[in-house]
Design goal:
Elements lengths: L4 H11 L1 H11 L7 H13 L5 H34 L7 H14 L3 H4 L6 H4 L1 H6 L4 H26 L6 H36 L1
Length: 204
Amino acid sequence: MSQFADVFLGFIDQWGYLAVAVLMGLENACIPIPSELILGFAGYLIYIDRMTFFMATVVGMIGGMVGSILTYYVGHLGGRPFVDKYGKYFFMKKSHVDIAQEWFDKYGVKAVFFSRMLPVVRTFISLPAGFAHVDIKKFIFYTFVGSLPWTMLILGIGMMLGEGWKVMMEVGHEISIAFCVILVLVAAVTYYKYSKRKKAKKEV
């Protein structure tokens, strides 16, 4: 899809918020359009006052959620055989689905949260969640809380980089991995402190 980058950028440049929503929807429907491209450029448009951070976040989340839910139902209704047979016609690589499946098999529904910040997996994790018939309310919750910080992070970096926003296209994967590691560490420290306080109360 890299050869279409200029087309996507032109689409966002002309249609603004609507284009961001549409492209984020496609990205979360397993069409390989890098979110760093969509949100990074949107961040640049915020930098030059053609968008606002709040509205870009809102439309990015709406598009992403719609795309994720549609993909969930593809997995839920069609199952793995359907995706393996017809997915190639919609740019769904079997190897990418396998990676997402491995994550889901290992971490269950919580993978829907953490994988939203990881390359490749964030785009395809909706499929194994659908295959497993995960409760739709849980799926929507974990998708939302996982997608929101990622969306805000990439918009914010694009905004801060300004004219140099395209740097993210080169280091986007490293950013996502680092961000996910930081979140895991924060979650671990928070859980440790919570457990320690709970234990101290029991001893009293």
